[in-house]
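S1.2 Input.
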Amino acid sequence: MRITAVTATPVRLPVPSAPYPSESAGTKVHWHGKRSRITPLRPDPILEYVLVRIETDEGLTGVGEAQADIGFFGQTVEEVRVSVEDYLGPQLVGKDPLNREYLLGLLDFRDNSCARSGIDLALHDLVGKALGVPASLLIGGASRERIQVAVEIAGGPPEAMAEACRTFMARGVRAFKAKIGGHPDADAERLRAIREAVGPDVSLRADANQGYDTKEAIRLCRLAERDGVGLELLEQPVASWNLQAMAEVRRAVDTPIEADESCYSIHDAMQIVRHDAADVLNIKLGKAGGLYAAKKIAAIAEAAGLRCVLGTAFGLGLEIAAKLQLAASTMLVVDAVEFTELGLHGTLLQPPHRELLALPLEDGCLPVPGGPGLGVILDEEEVARWQR
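S1.3 Output.
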């Protein structure tokens, strides 16, 4: 079997509001050149993706998707499409798709993680279909059939954030990550309001999005600890480049510290380990470059005695399925997996997975697709409807 073509299809979906509006939370952001999803040419809230197809001479096609969002991973839909079709994809044409490590090694371009992720997902989907096995079997084998779901709660007034959690609880969600960062005392009040709303048995995380300096991050954790909030972890409290400050926060508090923006590649993961900068690594397929690299980051975490969380990366359904396959095959991922996209827009999948990978949830969990490859099939009519 040989690869004959690698193609990219941009898709644009409207969403009710811009993801993560945080002005009301007073968030401070420390990264340089803050990017916005809303621009003069894109004045309405949208999320953009690139569907990737890998075709073969035996008639099999693998399908993946890449997030293309300037506000999330800093890669536009135009960049991702061109990377897939003009630079990365052509290197695979004529080669055997079963040689995954060799093929994905050809795509080791650090600044194209989203494009690489789309190709990686399509390749795992293709190989799984060729062998008649789910992608989870290609990366370790499934250890569970259902995965707990967490969703992120946009920053805002305490009662508004608490009410958002109650709304999601009515739809079966039992794990949350609050968007905070910038004002420790106000943020502690937000977390208290959420805990009072959801009760003691619901998982609660917080994401500062690099919004604190060292002392502010320590203060937030100590306030949450004093108030008995039961914070499962604090994500990226300080600037992504400042691993020394991350380590200082970690040493000063009992709350587990998670690295997100600090952890893109296997090399980033090693630097975090060397600096003792985190208790938890956040793995996102778009950051890591796909399933293959994500498993390598998880292996580094395991060797260092750290935990892993699979973070939100949005998706049309293929990436949701890929995250479920990754969670099922990675023993280190034992906590809820973040699927904020379930509250933003539906998938472009055929039934029954269109309904299964959606809210409301039966038991706070999503089922791991059991079919070959990623285990789901795109609804091509829906794709054509939203194709750019």
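S1.4 Remarks. Residues 143 and 331 are 7 Å apart (CA to CA).
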